[in-house]
Batch of 2 targets.
Target 1
Amino acid sequence: MSRLGSIGVRLYRGEIGYDFVAKRKFWYAVSILITITAIVGLAVRGLNMGIEFKGGAVFSTPAKSNASVSVAQESAQESSGHHAIVQELGNGSLRIQVSELDTASATKVQKQLSTDLNIPVDKIDAELVGPSWGEQIANKAWTGLGIFMVLVVIYLAIAFEWRMAIAALIALIHDLTITVGVYALVGFEVTPGTVIGLLTILGYSLYDTVVVFDGLKEGAVGITKQSQRTYSEVANRSLNATLVRSINTTIVALLPVAGLLFIGGGFLGAGMLNDISLSLFVGLAAGAYSSIFIATPLVADLKEREPQMKALRKRVLAKRAAAHARGDFSDEGDDPSHGDGDDPEPSDGPFDAAPAVAAGPSSPVVGPRGRGRGRSSGRRR
Amino acid sequence: MAAPNRGRRPAGAQGKPGRTLVLILIAMVALTGGMFLSGHTTPRLGIDLAGGTTITLKAEAEPGKESAVNETNMNTAVGIIERRVNGLGVSEAEVQTQGRENIIVNIPKGTDSEQARKQVGTTAQLYFRPVVTVAAGGATPQQPPSPAPSASSKDKATDPDKAGDKASPSASGKPSASATAQGRAVTEGLKAPATTSPSPAASSKAADPKATQSPAPAPTPTGAPATTALDKQFATLNCMDAKSRATIGDGAKPENPMVACGSNDGGKNWEKYILGPAELDGKDVEDAKGQMDQQRGIWIVTMDFTKGGAKKFTKITSKLSAQQSPQNQFAIVLDGEVVSAPQVNQTLSANAEISGNFKQQEAQDLGNILSYGALPLSFEEQSVTTVSAALGSEQLKAGLIAGAIGLALVIIYLVAYYRGLAAIAILSLFVSAGLTYSLMALLGPGIGFALNLPAVCGAIVAIGITADSFIVYFERIRDEIREGRTLRPAVERAWPRARRTILVSDFVSFLAAAVLFLVTVGKVQGFAFTLGLTTLLDVVVVFFFTKPLMTIMARTPFFAGGHPWSGLDPKRLGAKPPLRRTRRTSAPTEPKEA
């Protein structure tokens, strides 16, 4: 831990840090590239929808045929190239469902099953089967998603501000697009499990973004009252300060899913697990990535357009130029001696978190007031 | 949510952390105890993991209407059956068409398949028809029933409170018509509290507008029925015979008068009716539910009408109330059988109820069925048989093994990074997992909750999200220590802010769960339920377990002394120089959050 721990300290202190916001153009480009790939993949290859959505063919073996489930599954899967769902009925017959087959390949599957299971072809019934996840379910799911997105934007706009709401929404769409795109590219079958996985991501992606924004909001309290840092710099500082939390959370959430995907799906060969855990894995990773690399820089971008923030930037730059002229350039105003920007009364800050911050210089997020300066804290006491 | 001044009582919470811990432990013990007492020690598994029962239904084409068995109607039927068997979306039942005229319903193991069969098989074609004639159920020529004295129930609609009182007088005045024929539910069946149901979506295709205009085309004086053919049918009908009961209502068009049977006492005695054309049908019902009538102590099904339905209902009841008995009776006909035929004494609106000698389950099932509407086709049950799991046990096993390995990795990581603090995190995770497990096990029999493979995966991810709450809190504490505080003040100061973050972010998750649960159906709804449950548990665990445990642990020398293995060693965390630290500690703890 000590190594990682000390990195944590230094991140927290702002001694080290990655300039997420300044390098945002690069990460935007990366994301756009990935998103385009995903969309192209989606357009070209399309999604391989499972039998649950599209329906397919169902083959039934006669009662008391005592055919083996695993043999039937293998046989049907190999001859059709699709997932097969095999169930044994109470009377000993098998029900084998295969998605989307035309008549020719259905016959092929039927023949293959007949050979492998040792049952005459005419004893195997073939019928079309409808989707169990019908249009009605899908339509309602879309409606639900739409309503949720509207509500969440409204909520975030109230709890934070509209810029953050928009950034969170963009990040969310980014995550979902990437995940869906990966499905198109890998060609895994989309099952109800996949959809559930996608919905889980929807929840997680927003959750993660909100945690990061919460830190950002706190860090930006009273930002207009100082002339040490621009909004982008403050945003970057808060990102770095919450970075340890972001990394830890992502690792903790990803490890079990990675277990499902690589061990459960890979080594133990559980097909359905692959479908679900892949969407979860990709989505969780994308969600963590977008909160840091996309959502927050986007907020900074939007914020910098605000007249107040523009003015702030001007002030900061002017001050730095002056300091530079004096040959006393202080990097980002991080030098403790620069306490003059501190605002002892930050409660008039733009956000309701102000009182909590006012209670002490304890902000883990590097605030604009120069964090943890003994002097300022002494003043307050 | 998460307003800054929210919960300004950390003093209380921090003062008695032990009490909070005891509370949650009691809750855990209670849940686990309930789990063992009810005998459901494992969550019910979905059909993909545990198999279940499969019911094959075959659409029955009515003579002359073979074309009704088409794709559209089949799909509508699938949608309705799906909602009937999976009303809350958590039961994991699957419904699909097979071939041209079959519908397959898969129900996970452990569901009451008898009940399910009833639910899927009932057509639920509901009509409201005015009564023309009523007689004892036998095949004997009918006696015109003497008018039922209805004076007693005059004020009924205006004063629902009195409904109970009236039950007895009106009971005595029931169609004494027939000593044999117990007039069924005559008086109490229709009740209309003065509210109107403000429901949108008024559709009433089946109720022929013409029929609506002329509410009672048949009500010629008692004993002079509408048509002779009907009369003859009525005379020969023997309602005591189950077979003729079952077939008599078949093929009756809503716009024509019909003959039907009904029983008032759960099937011992039967009456037969001649009924006028349908005035309202199931589509005019907005919502229905089975509930206990407190005054009478019986189970009834109440129905709220749609706007259009309420209008029609008002119209017809105002006409009926002017009639003599039995023509002031309004029969509620379900699948060709009269389930209730109350008298109408004044104009009613908005809602009605069916009181037909129901058991609790029957009333609730009927309410459920009526809410989701009638099937466009009638179905015959072809086969009911067990079906094995689609995924098989090895999939679940693989999933569990992989999940366990993943969790072990999480624990290793937490220990490596948080050291002593990891013990608190891991304990919290176990509490969270224990609560989730026992709740899911209890919800199986409770609301038919079933776990499928995606839900198992979702639960594993949820554990990661729960862990995030601890991580947020721990990082805050460490930040406070870096500021130079000693552990106890750090723990208390970190909490309000960690709490805010946790509440805001969990609120977003909960919002997703609530919206999806309310709007969607089927598996998505089931997912929303699980998400909402785990989100709530996250908040519960962090507030009532992690935080108090942390407070207690902060008092132990191991943590407070900053033992290198505690994960809170100020030196390792790079705390401020001791000089300032001492000053800090001597300072009285400030208001946690002002």
Target 2
Amino acid sequence: MIVFGVALLSICLILGMLIGEALGVLLGVDANVGGVGIAMLFLVFASNSDALKALTQGTAGDGIKFWSAMYIPIVVAMAARQNVTAAVDGGVLALVAGVAAVVVSFALVPILSKLGNPKTPSFDSEEAS
Amino acid sequence: MDIIETVFLRNSLVVAFAVIGVTIWISYFLADKLTNGRIHGSAIAIALGLVAAYFGGVATGGNTGVADVALFSGIGLMGGGMMRDFAIVATAFGVHLSELKKAGLAGVISIFAGVIVSFVVGAAIAVMFGYTDAAAITTIGAGAVTYIVGPVTGEAIGATDAVITLSVAAGLVKSILVMIGTPLVARYIGLDNPQSAMVFGGLMGTTSGVTAGLAATDPKLVPYGAMTATFYTGVGCLLGPSILYFLVSGIF
């Protein structure tokens, strides 16, 4: 049943969000701390578990794959509802601060990636082009 | 005209599915014919979405882009936080635990490094623009973290409304730039494997920027980047009004 997979996905999200919200309260922060990330971990555990096979394989798995495939359309809708006007109206300071933060962060990606996995092979074909 | 409006409003989410579907079809067609597949179709679709959001905001004066136009209100639901999180979690289906473990430590470090680096950069720019008040500098720095951390920090430490608005704008610029810039710089920063995607998510942090940017680069990387990015805002809200504010008030 497709709905079994959808239900498993929903339960993972709700549990993750509850934990994220509780973490926020514990830390005294007005935000959900990692709820989605925790939910993703639950789904990873579920999809690697033998006990939950009935909920993750066959048609039940299709219920999860459907939402996974709907991800890009949902992101496009998300882009279409961003407050782009406010970003443009923010003026030079907002623009410079945003751009500088992104440029510096981009530059740190290769440095920290190496730190995580010194054995990562370099992708010569990509770098050559 | 009344008939169209009634049908569109009553079925707003279904209208959104149709509009987004057609937009993506056109985008993939353009990506294939005009750029020979060099630019990913979803990158074009996301860019079209942002352009539409700009005009939606200009036309209505609202703050949710094209979703403020009544006929397209369903896009607000489809692209809202609930559906976004639901679909992001679904992308974790089929992810291998071993990949996560490999980048675990680097992922955690990248979250803290990302928050601190973005904050310092934003705060430095605020100082360069002549701000000398610790609350304002901290709030603008927090805005460069994400557009959620900015107002959360600003309200906690009593920054003015104008500064809080500025911090949101800085965060929005960051988020939009990550969406557009990621596919362009991906090859230069080695963004082609799960480990670097996790580090990338932790460093950038803006969930919408990271997930859209990775979707336009390589959809297989999305779950890894999203996993770390979703912790970033929480860490930012934790550090902004506390340690980072104390440090800034110590200096100014």
